[in-house]
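INTERNAL AUDIT FORM
Audit reference: QA-55
Scope: verify that the stored structure record matches its stored sequence.
Auditor: D.O.
Record contents follow.
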Amino acid sequence: MIWLSLRLQRLQLLTLLGILVVGAGAIVLLRSSMIDDITSLRIADCLTQDPQLCQGSDSVTQFKVAWYTRLNLGQGAILGLPALIGVFIGAPLFARELEQGTHVLAFTQSVSRTRWMLSKLVVALAPALIVLIALQYLVWWWLTAAKNLGPRVNGPFYVLNIGIDHVSPVGYALFAFALCTFLGVVSRRTLVAMTAGLAAFVVVRFALFDLAGRLVPTQHAEVPAGGSLYQSQSGSLPAGGGWIDTAGRQLSGESANALIRPCRLAMSTTSTPEEYAACLRQSGIAKQFADFVPASQAWQVHLVDASIFGGLAILLLVGTGWVLRRQS
């Protein structure tokens, strides 16, 4: 059955192989060209230095103008690949056979419907995931070469970084594939499954965008009023924050603003941070706090994210099997 599925889906497999070869070749060439630019512009030291030290450099500006958009496009390709897997591989997998009536031949053979379905799913999904993981690694390899001059400097929770790291893309691809496959067997129309699947995938991705970050344990940091939480929060995912009064109680946003506003109005251009902090303490504000997921715990967010989308994918594939078993 696997061999028959391979023969029936050979065009799709050859397309995936072509995407892998072309994509890998392009990334290798782009990375090599980027490294040559870094060398010729003499900005290799800026790869590891504090970004603030290289901020005013004309060479760094020239490099970012030439390469930042290309790096973002590489990230965008990995972000969009799960949707393409769902639309062009998941949606037509069963919908085309149901639409053309060729499924009847399979249903009348000695092979069970479950085995027929599983063999088609494995042959369609496994190569797609292999291509996705390979291209994800190559884009990560390219971005890592840019270090502090590329999008990685924005931290692991930057919107373009978090969607392409760790196991998240695999979770998204599983969900997109299962969603479009399910819509295909329900609608029995390939085009309907492709368009509805793409729209539903985009809606669910936006709806659940920050769910994983809210399910991961957070850290709590406090500083005296007037202090800065920047060092403890650098590169982290904010989960909450506010002010604490001298009695140790958390203040609501309205109450905190009522106490902070007079201090801001009283400060002049010559006022020092110490004077501002003293004013806050006199107003009754003792500390500022923040809850956040540190950058070092980004892997937990990716695991939770992949678990959510992977769990949805399993439910949709079970639903696909249930619908297929009742097809005539």
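Auditor finding: record pair retrieved intact. The two ends are 21 Å apart (CA to CA).
Action required: none
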